[in-house]
Design brief:
six-stranded mixed sheet, D-Maltodextrin-Binding Protein, domain 2, three-stranded antiparallel sheet, 20% strand, globular, alpha+beta, 214 residues
């Protein structure tokens, strides 16, 4: 299986899980790196077999119940003051900002989390969605084109074994690379959820229905 890898902090628990239980998946020859928008493109042209695909691009794809979602503030998907400007690394967040008619610059990922930590004035897109629709928001879903049995085993084990506890040396390394304090990273990971339960699945279906014309 060739995995699309997005090196954002939000997926750190998933990659630590893979490192422990499925190390061969993380061998250099078995994954391709890129931001969400690039992973979407690679998945569409079948350059990868699996990856966390932006929700807005996951329509009609085979998907696990593993995703990146929030039931409250996410703090890494923001709309900052100013004229509307899409984030080139995003697909779902740009679509969500348009759907909610929010003006400003969209920022996602670690750079957005850094802006939040530094006190930037911004609208949290997860909170804006929840305020309007009273539902969690699913930003990405683990989609795949093959390896059904492997993905299903992986999903079951992930929900049994997944932890947000990051080894100190990894935490310090990521803090240095992102200029985000370790305690901010810990707090951020605790804000995220990874199981697409019935409530989240219904919210995802609603979002895809609302953006079908975009």
């Amino acid at each position: 299986m060739i995995l699309g890898r997005i090196d954002y902090l939000n997926l750190l628990p998933f990659y630590l899980f893979l490192k422990r239980y499925y190390p061969r998946v993380l061998q250099t020859s078995n994954f391709k790196k890129g931001p969400p928008s690039a992973i979407n493109r690679m998945f569409k042209r079948r350059a990868i077999n699996a990856g966390f695909i932006s929700s807005v691009k996951s329509r009609g794809q085979k998907g696990a119940n593993i995703g990146v979602l929030a039931y409250g503030a996410v703090t890494s998907v923001l709309v900052l003051e100013g004229e509307f400007q899409a984030d080139s690394e995003s697909a779902t967040s740009n679509a969500l900002a348009r759907l909610l008619n929010l003006k400003g610059r969209v920022a996602i990922g670690d750079k957005a989390l850094k802006l939040f930590a530094d006190g930037a004035k911004a609208i949290d897109l997860a909170l804006a969605w929840q305020a309007k629709y009273k539902a969690p928001f699913v930003f990405a879903r683990l989609c795949y084109t093959s390896g059904d049995r492997l993905i299903k085993r992986m999903e079951k084990r992930f929900f049994r074994r997944m932890t947000r506890r990051v080894p100190q040396f990894i935490l310090q390394d990521r803090a240095k690379k992102t200029a985000i304090a370790p305690e901010e990273i810990r707090a951020y990971l605790n804000r995220l959820e990874y199981r697409i339960d019935n409530k989240a699945a219904k919210a995802l279906k609603k979002f895809l229905f609302l953006v079908k014309d975009q």
